[in-house]
Structure formats: C-alpha cells, structure tokens
Design a protein that fits this description.
By secondary structure, this protein is an alpha/beta fold. Helix 20 links the parallel strand 12 (about 445) and strand 13 (about 470-475). The N and C termini lie far apart (about 80 Å).
C-alpha cells in the first residue's frame, strides 16, 4: 500500500519512521505530476517544497502549532498532506479546492494567502495573540525569497525582531518568485550562499568539530551546531537577519529530509525570533519544470511523460500578448517610453519590451508601491513611464497612486492586466475593484477597451498625449479579433464614447469586455421587438457628457454593464450623473449590471461571467425584465 494512501493528516505523517520520509516525498511529487498534468494549476513552486512541507508537518504539532504559508503557490503539497488528497483533482475548479490557502477550507490553513509577503506579519500577529492569551504553541511563517523584495516582509521582520517574540521564519530560497528574482537582497543571499570561502570554512568547521575523538568528540558534536552557527553567522547571510533581531540558522539543503528534520527539531527547542534559511529548487523532481521554472510556474494540462503542453484551442492571442507587442511598437518611435513591472515580465507581457529595449525596462520585484512611485520620479524628469501590474496587485500601491502620481498630476500610465473576473485563481486574484478605486482618484483618466485594437489605441493615447495619470484595464482573456499593427489602428479622441448601435427606448452603456456581449444582446432583443442603443463607454473617467446627455434625452431605460463591482463602480457614478435628468423625467429608469457585493469563488472565467449575469444572455434578460411583461419599452421619438 503506498504511503500516501495512509496519510489522512499530519498526525499520520508523524507516525512514520524518518527513513520512510523520502519515499513519501517521491509519492507526493508523483501525485502532483499526475493531477496537475490533467487539470493544470501552479506546479513548479509546490514541487520545490515537498521535502520542506513534509519536514515542517513532521516536526511541528500542526494544527496546534501554527504553520503560515506565504502566497499559496507552494501550498499544494501542504493540501495533499492535510486531508485533501482525495479532493486534489478538483483544485481550482468550481466547487473544488482553492489554488491558494483558505481558512474556511481547512484548519491547517491558518491564514489565507494569495499575495506575497503576508506570512511574517500574520505570524507575528498570531504569536502576539498567543502570548496575550497565555497559550503555548509554535508559530512558523514560510516566506519565499521572492517575497523578500516586498517591503511588507521587512516591516514584519523589523517588528518581530524588535519585540523578541517567540517566532520561527523559514526563508524558502529558490532564487525565484514567479520569474527570476531581482534586487540587492537576492544578490546578497546568492553571493553569500555560493561564496567558495564561506562554503569551505563551513565544511572544514563541521569536519573539525565532529572529528574530535572519544568523549570530547561527543561533547564537541553536541556543541557543533551552536558553535558552527555562531562562527558562520559572522560570514554568512545571518548578519543581515541578526541585525534585524533574528537568530539565523542555515543555509540548509531543502531537499535533504534528514537535515531538514534535524534542523527543525533543534530550532523548535529554541526561543525568540529565529530564521531558518532553506535552499530549494523550483520544479524539483520533474525535469522540464527544473529546466524552465518560469514556464512551469502555473501550467495548463500536459503530457506527464513527454512534458508536452496541451495546445490551447484559442487561435487568437491574449490581451497580455497584444499589449506587449504594442509596447515594443511604441518604444521604437518614442525614446522617452520606459516600462516597469513588479516581478511579472512574463505575466504582463512586458518582457518583450525588455528584450528590445533593456535600458528602458525595469523589473523592481514584488514592490508595487515602489513601482508606482519609481514611475512618478521618472515622469517628473520628462520620461513616459508605463507601469504594468495586475489589477489585484495594484491595490497594494493605492497610496502611491494618490500621493505620488495623482496629486502631482504626473503622466504615468497604469496598465492593469487581469482586470475583472480572472477564473481559476479565485478571490485573491480578482481584478474587480480597480474601477471603484481609480474613479475616486483626482486627475485620473480611467479607460477600458472593447477589444485588442482599441487597447493599443488607448495605450498610445496614454503614452503620447495624456497630461496626467492614465489607467488602462484589460482582462485575462483572448482578444476577440486579429489586431493589426499600431500604425493601422485609428486614433481615439480623448474622453469620447462610441455609439455602436442606435436604437430606441433602451440604451445599453457598456464598459470594456461587456461591449461585445451588449451588441450580441441587442441583436437578440431586436428579434423580440426591442431596439436597443449600444454605447462603448471606453472612457469611464472623464465621461462623454455630450453622448450621455443624448442618451438621457432619447431613451427611457438606461442599463450600464461593467466587469467590476456594482458598489462604487461606473454604473454608480453614472447614476449620480443622471440624477438631474431623472428629476426632470421621473420615468427614466437606470439599471446597473456588474459584479455583486460578495466574494466570487474560483471557477472557469466563463462560469463566473454566467454566474453574475455578465453575458449576452444576462444583459438581454435584464432588458426584458425592465421592458415589462408586454415586451416593448415605451419609446420617445429619436432626435
């Protein structure tokens, strides 16, 4: 009987002799390869922490001892070992396991995590609550070295070291976040860990201390760990963490279970803030993932024998890919264009610009607030910065957007990838809030294209003509059309909407990804005697007052549709703008379609759109309901 089939909880794991742990690690990897090859998901990060996960649950009394994971990309082995192995094939599917950590999914998921660098601060909060309540258990935070480019991680370390609270931080060092790590911290850790002198001194100290004969050897052996740590901390990365108030242990081979278990058993007996530096390899155990960890970070289904990825059905490129191509075209004719990303050159499509113009491309690491203020500094000196950041991650930079960009009215272009419903990554990665939070920012232009060509036209407008902050949101999806080169795309006049269909009685004011479904809904409604106007509201701020006034004067029903929150979104802003018209014409109806005020769970993006009614059928259904049982809206004569 395979070992994994006997593991329903970490308690079962702790019953195994240490000699069987390597076999269990092999079986966990096999399980991951088997399942993810069929369903897709985050892959390389979990493969890299199999031994680390086993060792942590083996040594610490989870769930009594609290294990807090950072992000959740690396959480798949943790899920497999904590009673969710049978459900593992449902991961990231509607109604199945989350791809990230969820407190409501398991008592072993102590703290929900989808964004990097939260684990240390959360762990310190949990440890503080433990002490205030007079309880006794260990608190362990696992943080990736990629998260060490994020200021939040250092805020947590600084506070934890200052408080001298009993807390363990495990630094999982694989030289990767999603892409290759950048920055001084990464260089420092790599330089020290790979330094030949450091490693030679370390090895010789181990040999010297443990080679002493007889009783002296036994005594020296028992002291070896402590003495070695003290001496090597003067030479190694421990200096940095020691100055922050942590006792440093490591680096430890993250794929050597004996070393990991022994280290954690020793560390468990210590007190105060301590940090264990563990070296792992992202994608460990599956050669294609080891060779290309960026490609295999999050993956579609694949052939587990050959490693060949399943071909996507879509023949059209993604918005992200088209955006990256557009940046390169703009960069060729505008030497002042600079591009910034926060550890996501592949994810945002900006890597293509970096390959073409390396001197004008900046990956700042997982540091979204810094990315925005960095862009503001370049804008002050006349450059035209584009900061491409996922919508969900830009939330972390909100103060920088207001304080450093908007209040100074600087021409920084914010490109919000993954805006709207993102599908299987679920709630932590939803780009649903950017419309609401950017509409509130003074001087900010807020735009959303209906297709790939309009996205590039708006990008060009923001880079070449905008005089203040300019935002552009686009989805995690394929473009609906073949996109020509930038020179073939007509210019968009600033602040204008586009009337795509003139009807009577009812008007659908659609934003971004909802424009084409609105047109389809109008075609369906036409067969039922409802002739709807459809307007492409590509500028959410400023609004096209001329077109809005015409719509208000010539229609009795106005439906706004957006792939964002109903609360404080575009529809809410328009309803406020339409109040004078509604006072003049009490019969004027305004209906807002968008994402309701609740958490939208992980599922396929199409399933999510259907769930909240943001499809052609959903839009048509709303108009029918407003039209009443008679099926015809009373119309006014069109001007």
């Amino acid at each position: 009987m395979p070992l994994l089939e006997r593991i329903d909880s970490p308690e079962d794991l702790r019953r195994l002799p240490r000699s069987q742990l390597p076999e269990l690690a092999r079986e966990v990897r096999e399980r991951m390869v088997d399942v993810i090859s069929r369903v897709g998901g985050h892959f390389a990060p979990g493969l890299g922490v199999v031994e680390l996960t086993i060792a942590l649950h083996y040594v610490f009394d989870t769930p009594r001892d609290k294990l807090i994971w950072d992000v959740g990309h690396q959480g798949y082995p943790h899920k497999i070992l904590t009673g969710r192995n049978a459900a593992f094939p449902t991961i990231r599917k509607k109604g199945g396991l989350s791809g990230f950590l969820r407190r409501d999914e398991s008592e072993y998921d102590v703290f929900g995590a989808g964004h990097a660098a939260t684990s240390i601060s959360a762990a310190l909060g949990i440890a503080t609550a433990r002490d205030l309540k007079g309880e006794d258990y260990r608190v362990v935070a696992v943080v990736g070295d990629g998260a060490m480019t994020c200021g939040l991680a250092f805020e947590g370390l600084n506070n934890a070291g200052h408080t001298d609270r009993d807390l363990i931080v495990v630094l999982n060092d694989n030289e990767m976040s999603i892409s290759r790590n950048v920055g001084a911290i990464h260089k420092y850790l790599t330089r020290m860990v790979t330094n030949p002198l450091y490693n030679r001194v370390r090895d010789e100290l181990k040999h010297l201390l443990r080679a002493a004969p007889g009783t002296l050897g036994d005594t020296m052996g028992s002291l070896a760990g402590k003495f070695e740590e003290s001496v090597l901390n003067m030479l190694a990365p421990g200096i940095l963490f020691k100055e922050l108030g942590f006792r440093y242990v490591g680096p430890v081979d993250g794929h050597d279970l004996d070393a990991l278990v022994e280290t954690f058993e020793n560390v468990r007996r210590m007190k105060g803030p301590r940090l264990v530096h563990v070296l792992t390899r992202k994608g460990k155990g599956y050669p294609p993932a080891e060779q290309s960890p960026v490609v295999w970070h999050g993956i579609t289904p694949f052939d587990k024998i050959s490693g060949e990825l399943a071909r996507k059905r879509e023949s059209l490129p993604s918005y992200t890919s088209v955006f990256g191509r557009g940046l390169v075209e703009l960069g060729a004719r505008n030497p002042s264009l600079v591009v910034i990303t926060a550890a996501m050159p592949e994810g945002t499509g900006t890597g293509r610009f970096g390959e073409s113009y390396p001197d004008r491309f900046f990956d700042v690491g997982i540091a979204e607030g810094h990315a925005v203020t960095f862009a503001a500094g370049m804008a002050v000196e006349g450059l035209r910065p584009v900061a491409a950041i996922y919508s969900t991650f830009l939330q972390r930079a909100y103060d920088s957007i207001i304080h450093d960009v908007a209040l100074q009215n600087l021409p920084v272009v914010l490109a919000l990838d993954r805006a709207g419903l993102v599908g299987n990554d679920g709630p932590t990665h939803m780009g649903l809030y950017d419309i609401a939070y950017l509409l509130a920012v003074p001087n900010m232009t807020v735009t959303a294209p209906k297709d790939g060509a309009e996205m590039l036209a708006l990008l060009r407008l923001g880079v070449e003509e905008a005089t203040g902050p300019f935002s552009l949101r686009y989805p995690r999806d394929s473009v609906p059309e073949q996109v020509p080169s930038l020179d073939e795309i007509p210019r968009v006049e600033y602040g204008t909407w586009e009337v795509l269909r003139r009807g009577h009685g009812v008007a659908i004011l659609a934003v971004g990804t909802m424009v084409l479904p609105a047109l389809q809904a109008a075609r369906e409604l036409e067969a039922e005697g409802l002739d709807a106007t459809v307007v492409n509201c590509r500028f959410l701020k400023p609004i096209d007052r001329t077109t809005l006034d015409w719509v208000a004067a010539q229609h009795d029903v106005i439906v706004t549709v957006e792939e964002g929150t109903i609360v404080n979104g575009f529809g809410a802003a328009l309803a406020r703008e339409l109040e004078p018209a509604r006072r003049e014409r009490p019969g004027l109806q305004v209906e807002i379609l968008g994402v309701p005020d609740r958490i939208i769970e992980h599922a396929d993006r199409r399933e999510q759109l259907e769930e909240v009614g943001l499809t052609a059928e959903g839009i048509a259904r709303c108009v029918r309901e407003l039209a009443g049982s008679g099926g015809v809206v009373q119309v006014r004569e069109s001007a």
